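Exercise 3.2. Students should predict the tertiary structure of the chain below and write it as structure tokens, then compare their answer with the key that follows.

Predict this chain's 3D structure.
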Amino acid sequence: MACETEEPEPYEELFRAVGRQVKLLRERAGLTQRDLGDRLGYSEDLISSLERGRRTPRREFLAAADELLGGGGLLRAIADEVERARAKSRVRHPAWFRDYARLEASAVEINDYSNHDVPGLFQTERRARALYEMRKPVLDEETIDRRVASRLDRQRILTDRPPPLVTAVIEEGALRRPVGGDEVHKEQLHRLITLAELRHVEIQVMPIDRPEHAGMGGPFILLTPKGKPQVAYVEAQNQASLLVDREEVRILAARYGSIRAQALTPQESLTLMTDMLGDR
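Answer key:
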């Protein structure tokens, strides 16, 4: 089965460049990859991956390799830059989501209508991982780890000071779907209840028995970046659109107002989620 992979990032060029430097110094010292690995306590496969830029060298490896290979401080000198790039490499959004993620990081208001799952800003780590693990085509483990880390990193805005105003309308059916199993589902409901009690977060549930529903066109997010006009984000099947046309955004904003009016109130929604948790 095919695996979906990430597009390369600029820091990957740094890892490849460092790998080439290690290879150059190793060959100049007359050592094979196995020789270098044996002397530093690493496997031959790991040395090969480091030299090709597929694995990120740690600070201690760079220091030991610099001394053993006579690098004259060359590898030590780039350790800080490699560490910074390594930290960034753990948080990476898919290409089609990056423009939105940049705007979200500086948002003063976020309004999210979700009809198939809990909004990413509210997901627990285990639920996010379960969602990525069930994707088809399957994602490789490294990509899953990065996307989960990226999703959790986005959630920092919920505790920023001052935090943005965040409202969300979630379909009741999505809240009843035990993604990841019962324990993961209970953990997710508990997190939603905790978030709903924050003053800057309002969560509403759209009951499944509503005869009229303004959100039948699908999910979307309205986002107001600091000092900029409101924009809209629409995503389906890994295809995303960031809408900036004022008329298009106005229409979705009006639709969101109707959706909120048709949904349960925040207090009614909190009661329903608490009941759901008690039923698990």
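Discussion points: The first helix runs from residue 10 to 28. Confidence is low (pLDDT under 50) at residues 1-8.
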